[in-house]
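Hi all, posting the design record for the shared folder.

TITLE: backbone redesign
STEP: 1 of 1
STRUCTURE INPUT:
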């Protein structure tokens, strides 16, 4: 999924020397495939030119995600915080890549990078292990089916 909110221009960095960087921030509606949110997503981005493309670091990312309680099936919100995430965006596909899900390419024609999938992956990686509305939730009754 592409969201222009998370698309950043790299045109000013294209002709700059290695290790030149620019910083951005974002605060926009969070719309990700298969992730239901209840707030905007905000955070900071640093884009640094490297030999094969750009190194992208996100920091202080926050978003409220809606989960369904595993015990009682009621929806609840939980704030997801991503203190730091880092990915490389390449000019072209490297000869050796371990995981295709970790391949991020630069839109050379438009001179832009899209962080949508990177952010979606990081949000999913920071989901709570046990998705329950509260520690005291007893769940649904096995006899009557009520909470």
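Okay, here is what came back for every position:
SEQUENCE:
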């Amino acid at each position: 999924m592409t969201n222009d909110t998370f698309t950043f221009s790299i045109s000013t960095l294209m002709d700059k020397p290695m290790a030149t960087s620019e910083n951005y921030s974002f605060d926009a509606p969070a719309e990700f495939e298969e992730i239901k949110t209840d707030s905007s997503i905000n955070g900071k981005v640093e884009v640094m030119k490297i030999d094969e493309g750009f190194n992208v670091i996100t920091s202080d990312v926050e978003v409220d995600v809606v989960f369904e309680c595993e015990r009682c099936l009621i929806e609840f919100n939980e704030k997801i915080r991503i203190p730091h995430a880092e990915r490389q965006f390449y000019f072209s596909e490297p000869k050796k890549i371990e995981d295709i899900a970790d391949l991020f390419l630069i839109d050379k024609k438009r001179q832009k990078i899209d962080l949508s999938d990177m952010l979606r992956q990081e949000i999913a990686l920071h989901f709570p292990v046990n998705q329950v509305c509260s520690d005291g939730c007893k769940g649904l009754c096995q006899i009557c089916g009520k909470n």
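COMMENT: DSSP finds one helix and seven strands in the chain.
Let me know if anyone wants the other runs.
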